[in-house]
Amino acid sequence: MQKIDTFSANSLKILDKSFVEFKNKYIYNLSIYKKDKRTQTGQKFHGLICFYIRGFDVSRLLMDLSSDELICWQKLKEKLKLIKRNFIKTEYSFLIKDELNNIPYYLTGRFDGIYKDNDFYVIYDWKTSNFPKNPANDLQSIVYLYALSKIYKTDKIKMRYLSIEKLQTFDVNFVSSEKYKEIIDEIILKLPWFNFSLNSGLESQELSF
Amino acid sequence: MLINANSNTNRTKLLQNKYLELLNSGIEAEKILVIVQNSKKKKEFIDEIKENSNKGFIGSLKIYSFWGFIREYILENWVLVEEGLKDKNAKITPYLSGLEISQYIFKKSIDEVDFTGYNSKTSLLHQLFRRNSLINLNNLSKEEIDKRDKILQQTYSSEANQTINKYKAKTIDLRAFDYVRQINIFEYLYKKLENKFEYIFVDDADEITPCVLAYLEHIKPSVKEFFIGYDQFGSSRLGYLGAINVDFEKFLNCKALKPFEDDEKTKNALKIFHSVKEDKKIDVENINTKTFLKRNEMLDCVIEDIKTLVNNGVKPSDIAIITPINDEFLKTTLEKTGFCFNFISKSEKLNQNKIIGYLLELLKIIIDTNNKFVSPYILKGILIEILNIEKKEALSFVQEYKTGYEFQGLNLFDLIKNKDNEQFRKFINIYEKCRFEKLSSILFEIVSGFIPFQKEFSKDIIKINQLLKQICDFEDVFKDEFDRLELIVQLENTIISENPLSDLEIDENSIIVSSAQKIIDYSYKTKYQFLLDVSSENWIRQDIGPLYNSWVMQKKWEKDTFELEDNINLTKDKISRMLYKLYLLTDKLTLYSSAYDYLGAENFSGIDKYFEYKNEFLQDTKAEIKPIVPRDDQKEVLKYKGGLMSVSATAGSGKTTIMLLLVDKILSGEILNDIEPNNIFVLTFMESAARNFKERIKAKYPNLKELPNISTIHGLALRILKENNNFSKVGLDYDFEILDEVKRVNILTEIVHKFLGSVDKLDLYDAAISSYKNELVLYGDFECSNKLFLKIYNAYDEKLKSENLIDYDDLLLLSLKLLRENKDILDYYADLAKIIIEDEAQDSSAVQQNLITLLGSKHKNIIRCGDINQAITSTFTNSDVEGFKDFMKKSKNVVMDRCQRCATGVLDCANDTVDYAKKEEINAFSDLIMKPVEGKNIIDSKAVGSFIFETEKEENNFVLKEIQSLLKNSDKPISIAILTRSNFAINKWVKILEEANIRTYKNSDNLINNLCYRISLLILEFIINPYELRTLKEIAKELYDIGFYDFDTLRYANSLCEPIFLRDDFDEQFWWDMNYFLFKNYYSIYDLVCEIGEFYFSKTGEKDNIHMVATIAQKVKNSQKTFEDAVLRLREIQFKNNFSNIKFFKSENKDKRKNTVSVMTIHKSKGDEFDYVFIPELTKDNLCLSIDDCKLKEKSTFIQKIKKYPKDDFELKKEITEENFRLIYVGITRAIKKLYLTVSNNYKFFARDKKFENSEFFEGVLCKK
């Protein structure tokens, strides 16, 4: 079995839910490709926001929006106009190395944007759907804040979810790297190759699959 | 930094360390761009960085394969492209789509351009893809394209460019770009944007393409430092994969570091590199060569070798099987061994997966409201494999549907609705809910509802996801503006082969099977490399076609011409690099070759010629075979010292044996100096003779790596056309096919019917077309007076061109044209052909003789053997005995007039025939009189018996009783033949004999005569109609006859009175076997036939034919709508001789023919011999020996009308009479012990008795006795 050692917020979420589901999706690739409308809208807005913040003229791109999306964009643009200068990164990917039981593991992901507000670094995440029910405890917030703390080596960070449809934001403040690592480690420990005490049970888990 | 080192060194590791040094020095990862060759190497690079980095933030890595980089770059900066466009189709993100979308767009673009008259319409799409890809990979400007078009003189280049431009415009409108098209967008963008990378790493830089180089050139001024790893002897992707040889020292203006000493392996690899370049044999240890006649034998040896290694503790993953022919044949043969194989095919088509095949069929059923009838075979597969319906229930349902549809026009869905079954209900719910939805939604629902999400299905699910993604891409790009059915049909018949998943995870229990390029690209190291099919041209196939040329379209091409020598040298260069790189990846290399490929065609032009022959498994000595002591008349032949020689050899004079001795002498260097096997060309008239000759040479020299070129003239012509891509010079595409009898009849039927309203005269036109083509070659264009014929001829010619087909006449004509019009090609072959030996020269056509003269034009060593007295094909083929006569005049003539075959009485009869012709002043024979060999021939003056009967029945009874008596009274096995005048009579005699329980052997190439074809067809018929008990009984009988089943099985089959699948006869082997085939749902008929063949014939000689039969079945299936239609068609064509140029291996040897009666035409018997020969039905109609009484058939006179110099009726009658004399002469001389010549005065003619005159032969020759 492939011993996965690199995790995204999403893969951790699935592992947190169930090891079997994690194995099916990430080791055996047992999931079906599906493209829904909301994902497509999300991709459009991500692209548009990114180009806009980087200072490109996006007027032609608006032809690609439906009338509802256009109304939504106009409002969003007003909001972005005020803050766009403070973005220091957009669509920024990261790779963090850590370890658990002396075994290295890696966290990856991509920040939609990093905004600098005086001494504070704010991770922006645009949401068209799947707005987290409990942002403070959401694994995305935990992984992203943990990652950002490693990048800028500071505690002055926060994560900001922005609902594109509702134009509402929700901030998650940084708690502590140790706390985040503890949560992440706890999930990763569900994997037998990180948790030696689980090894004896591996066979039975295979069978139950 | 420039590192010149090969893949066997730590070059990549060195680059990775440099990368880490930069990171550790505080340089941000996003300022360092790393370009590696593919995503596997990308993963390896990243893994190494991950492992050796410090804890914490490693960075925002910019490590890509080149294609991955382009993709990211476009997505990141797309807005700039939109800024430059003016239309209303703007998109926030473009569709970076797959090749299926491009295929669809290209098809639409082709429809808008007039390609009238273009030769290879079937492959036009492929041609344009290739052209477009080469232009982009090589970063060619318009001027550069124009220059190359001039060099190549490609007639349709303007149309091609027009189509590509239209395609490009459409991709812009749709904002849909495949990876090739992305190059253009990328180029546009990087020229507009500032470079943000300060450090650039490129590994495997010897494999980069000009488009990558152009980018690196562009950013060079703004880059702080380059780190480039390359191998100066690398660049194995030269040519169609677009690699370019770059002088990196010049590029970076610095000296390359060579940090690693050459180890032993590198030194050997370099030896290989230089040997190939200099045309020398490779002399390197650890290379072993094994050579075989048939591909099957080769694979058997490969399997044995694998077993030996694994038994000796070698891990399967330490073995790599490398071949350019990664086909179904290989796959099924290897898979049955029980080892695990991981096939990394060069290319894969989605629909090769069974589940995908059934899903596409199911989608078609759901959305195609016009498609009323569903193939029951496919329906059964869908029910069992997708909808999980229980097998017997599925079969009953299918039967119910079949009858319901036939008799009541019942609709499939209505029938399903009425079923009280959960699975059916689930399906109907999906159908009702989403049949009008998007294709992707329907597919999603079916897959979610029915495909089990289990580990065993993971490979299928990957494929399903690829399919879903492709369909979603279509829906995104084209919205509703595409036809759902059209898309499914495209997906089923796609020409696109996407690369398989790039992560090459091979577990240690799997043996990798791959192309050489993939092994190199992935740097896949194994202890053992088995290189298969090394005698096949596929190892060195260059990519050249009517609309592209991968050499000339290279960025670096500077010459104003493209000649054969360029092609040969560049190909050699590429092979040297490929073999060099392969060798670096292994400890031991074994090469396997076979003289024939799996369809029985000869292999040629492989890479085997570069290797010394060092064989471990056979002794390197000549095999001991019985020495032959030549007779005095034969010795003359062996005195040959060069020049032109003709050998007149009578029947039974041991001609083949002496030819073999002659080749033996030539091979041993006794006749000509400096001669290699490939300098010897032996041309036979029949394919079987060529094979027989090859087998005998092989038996004598088991270790001979390379056999002399032994083939029919058509085989040689095919080689000339195919080798070095010569076909492109006559406007053919590489996948041109030779028109077989079945397809020719189909095409002609359609055309003749169109012009004449009936097909009564089909045969006339068939023969006339062939004749006319020969006339055109001999005399050039001339005015043919028969205008209607010309119309039909032109329509036929046009049809062939449009389908990229050539017929057998074209094969000779085009190769002759190639040699005549291209001096470089002629020089190549004339130089190679140091000696040419032609057998059956009396049957050689004028075109064939021209070809031989051209081939022999340099060395002028030509030996032509024949017997004018046995020229029996001139009246119905284009053979030209006069040409041989002329050759005899100008060459040294050796006569072999001793016949040791026939009993003295038979010899006398043959000589009397010659005398009679002379007496009648008919110029049928030469003056050669056959003489016996002392002590060899049976002395029997009464060896010939002639018998005249009153009725046909009496004649039949006489022949039958005589045969029964011969078989009964002989204490040793004997051979008996009935030789007929026509094909028609064969069936009559077979029937008579078989009714009397006498086993027969039909020497005919009919498909149905092949055992594997016969059995497979019967089982296919059983599968489509499992309720038909007669078929089951026939299957049991056939398999009982060959000893597969015992008498109890036969009795069981005969006792069946209800369908086998309704019974539970668990202790009956036959029941198990038939149920197995019935419920083993193969989407591909090829796989099904292979399974049948392997089951029944894997331990017999028939094994060699299994894949040929499977290929025929697949080809037939491709031209038919349904599986059932294909099975019916296979039955319809059972009496055809040839299909798709596939040549069955004859598994029966002569010994097996003992105590059976061979039934064949006299024509077919040439070259054969039998203890007892019967020639019945010798009426005047069948054998007229008088010019005055000769009746001309319409065919003969018709053909004359299309000739430049037509013969008059008298001349024609004379020719036919002469040939009749020779025909009976051939028949007579087949007999060793006794000859029976019979006739009756009356025969059944349309069920009535009719009087027939006896042939003059009875009075003129036999009454003398």
Shape of chain A: globular
The number of domains of chain B is 6
Question: End-to-end span of chain A in angstroms?
Answer: 13 Å
Largest sheet of chain B: 6 strands, parallel
Q: According to CATH, what is the class of the largest domain in chain B?
A: Alpha Beta
Give a quick account of the main beta sheet of chain A: strands, pairing sense, barrel closure: 6 strands, mixed
The CATH superfamily label of the largest domain in chain B reads: P-loop containing nucleotide triphosphate hydrolases
The residue fraction in helices of chain B comes out at: 40-55%
Low-confidence stretches of chain B: 614-624
CATH topology of the largest domain in chain B: Rossmann fold
Strands across the major sheet of chain B, in which order? 7-14-11-8-10-9
Summing up helix and strand content along with how strands pair, one would put the structural category of chain A as alpha/beta
* Quaternary: heterodimer
**Average pLDDT rating of chain B:** 89
- Helix count of chain A? 7
- How many distinct folded domains of chain A? 1
CATH architecture of chain A: Alpha-Beta Complex
Could you explain the architecture of this structure?
The complex is a heterodimer of chains A (about 210) and B (about 1250). By secondary structure, chain A is of the alpha/beta class. Chain A has a single domain, classed as Lambda Exonuclease, Chain A (Alpha-Beta Complex). Helices cover about 40% and strands about 25% of the residues of chain A. In chain A, strands 1, 2, 3, 4, 5 and 6 form a 6-stranded mixed β-sheet that branches. Chain A is globular and about 55 Å long. Residues about 200-209 of chain A have low confidence and may be disordered. Chain B is an alpha/beta fold and about 1250 residues long. Chain B folds into 6 domains: about 265-350 and about 500-610, Rossmann fold (3-Layer(aba) Sandwich), CATH 3.40.50; about 350-490; about 630-735 and about 805-895, P-loop containing nucleotide triphosphate hydrolases (Rossmann fold), CATH 3.40.50; about 740-800, no CATH class; about 915-1000 and about 1150-1265, Rossmann fold (3-Layer(aba) Sandwich); about 1005-1135. Helices cover about 50% and strands about 10% of the residues of chain B. Chain B has 48 helices and 32 strands. In chain B, the strands form 8 sheets. Chain B has a 6-stranded parallel β-sheet, with helices on both faces. Chain B has a 6-stranded parallel β-sheet with strand order 17-16-20-21-15-22, sandwiched between helices. Chain B has a 6-stranded parallel β-sheet with strand order 25-30-29-26-28-27. In chain B, strand 20, helix 33 (about 845-855) and strand 21 (about 860-865) form a beta-alpha-beta unit. Chain B starts with a strand and ends in a 5-residue tail after the last helix. The chains are: A alpha/beta (about 210), B alpha/beta (about 1250). The interface of A and B includes residues 2, 34, 95, 106 and 151 of A. Strand 2 of chain A pairs antiparallel with strand 3 of chain B, so a sheet runs across the interface.
